[in-house]
Known about the structure:
This protein is α+β, with helices and mostly antiparallel strands. 35% of the residues lie in helices and 22% in strands. The termini are far apart.
Amino acid sequence: MNYDRPQWVYVGNGTFRYWDGDIWTDEYREGDEHLKEPPPEWDGAKHAADRHGAHERRGPSLVWIAVALLALVGVVAVALLLG
């Protein structure tokens, strides 16, 4: 099954869980296998805001920045020693 769009997904025992297109929500429903609409209280913007920071990267991590700076210092040091 393709999970690239928001949808209700059957998870067994007559229960469906809502996939918001990025992560599983805590929304569950029982019922019809053709249940597709989002829950009435579902707010895509709220869920997107909740995901930021916990599940999505905002940019390069501090580790990668430190590695890049060390590499730059190394290149400058070698250039000064050879130049």
